[in-house]
Amino acid sequence: MTPLMTAVDAPPAAAGVVASSTTPELGGVGSGLVSVVSSLTDEELTARIGEMEAWIRRARMEQLRLIAEADRRRVYAARGARSTQVWLKSLLNIDGPDATVRVRLATATTADATNTVDSDESGSAGRVELPVVSEALAEGVIGVDHANVICRCLSRLPERARGRAGEVERLLVEHACRLCPRDLAKLADRIRYALDREGVVRDEEAQFEARELHYATARDGMLVIKARLDREAGAKFVAALQPLAAPRPEEDGVKDPRTVGQRNADGFTALLDLALESDGMPRTGGQRPHLTVTINYEDLAATLQNNEITALGGAGTLEATGQVLSPQTIRRIACDSDVLPMVLGGDSLPLDVGMSQRTAPPHLRAALLARDGTCAFPGCDHPPGTPQAHHVRHWIDGGPTRVDNMVMLCAHHHRTIHTQHWNITLDRGRPVFTPPSSVDPDQTPQPGGKAAPVLHKHALEQLIPTPRTPLEDTR
């Protein structure tokens, strides 16, 4: 078998490049390399990948030794840099945090290192020596990410626990051979919580003080949110978001097409709907938190024909942000919202205010939920949340607010109905959805809603024969 990896002498290093004594040669270049790799069996390919990873780890340990020596000699000063980290960042064209990690590990895994560096991003400093980590790196059994986790853990041990640093290091290296860096970090957290209870409480308090959430409207009109939450608040957020952001079930073998980011955004939107519907939300001016949209009534009442607005409609306004919104989107929002008629004068000041008209009062929503479940759309298994009541014939267009003119839809399928223009009818009280030709050229109607008990009863009657009466038995 042609060797895939051999050790050869490296050429002299070019200016600005650090080279070690050996480099891997991959048995050829270009198409020759492809032919060599393609000739390997699955077992050989697997072994080679593992061997290459071990070689990379050993090479990284050799690089750490070189970095430690450069730091000891203060090579950075002769190059006009203010620190080894800054010099290394420029030399290797890497990010600053990566350079800091490499210098920190270099000084910690080299026995004669004399310098100390910040042990973590918070700025706490301490001398850390990692002889066991150094040996494991040299053998290629752990990676630099593992070593960084161990270094951070040991550097943050309290003074009274420093005597157990060697024991902690050996324990973490042993588990690093089996755990990925993320899982190793969880074990390191456990160890620190056991050995530094006062310190971790201070850390948690510091995290709480460092909490922040900022939001701003981007130029394209989208809201940008940036947040840093302490552990408790973060866990609450994840626990609330995960069930709402779960992938939708496969339909005809097709997986949920949304990206993880899109699913999280949809889950967050559903979370907001739940919060706004909650009676526990604080009131402002006697009103529950709500979304206020203003639009000219004629623009809102403009109907769709052939997927086009019949009149030249103006945009509405989101009062919370001052942004504009299309009449089509406002019609979807208005399906299950309070509509407050307000007459404005020529100067846009209110002249008269009518009574709000709720399109789906509580008793009607209860009836719709009993018939349709959370969402009547065929195949939808949206988790319990805040469904939206949709008028088959829109209320703005004169559609009545009755059970026989409404269906319950989750936010996703409510948007689908409006954007794709599905047709909904009610057949003996059960919703039937007809897709547009762009979805199904045959436009085959699909029954929706949850199965009613009477349907189950009819199905069971086909399996269980009707009991015979005593009179029939005597014949």
Q: Helicity level, as a percent range?
A: 40-55%
Number of domains: 3
Strand order of the largest sheet: 5-8-9
Q: What is the global morphology?
A: elongated
On the 0 to 100 scale, the average pLDDT is: 75
Provide the low-confidence segments as ranges. 1-23, 26-31, 113-125, 284-289, 303-312, 349-356, 451-457
Strand content: 5-15%
Described by its quaternary structure, the protein is single chain
Number of strands: 18
- The DSSP helix count reads 18
First-to-last CA distance: 88 Å
Give the C-alpha Rg.
33 Å
The major β-sheet equals:
3 strands, antiparallel
Structural class by helix and strand composition:
alpha+beta
Domain HNH nuclease: 363-415
InterPro entries: DUF222, HNH, HNH_nuc
Protein name: DUF222 domain-containing protein
Family: Belongs to the Rv1128c/1148c/1588c/1702c/1945/3466 family.
Descriptive overview:
The chain has 3 domains: 41-198, no CATH class; 211-285, no CATH class; 359-461, no CATH class. The chain is 43% helix and 13% strand. The chain is built from 18 helices and 18 strands. It has helices spanning 31-38, 42-73, 75-78, 84-92, 96-109, 131-139, 144-155, 165-176, 181-195, 197-209, 231-241, 260-277, 297-301, 327-333, 362-372, 411-420, 453-461, 470-474; strands at 6-9, 22-25, 212-217, 223-228, 293-294, 304-305, 308-309, 316-318, 323-325, 338-339, 342-344, 350-353, 357-358, 388-391, 406-409, 423-427, 430-434, 446-447. A 3-stranded antiparallel β-sheet has the order 5-8-9. A 3-stranded antiparallel β-sheet has the order 16-17-18, with no helix packed on it. Helix 2 packs across helix 6 (131-139).
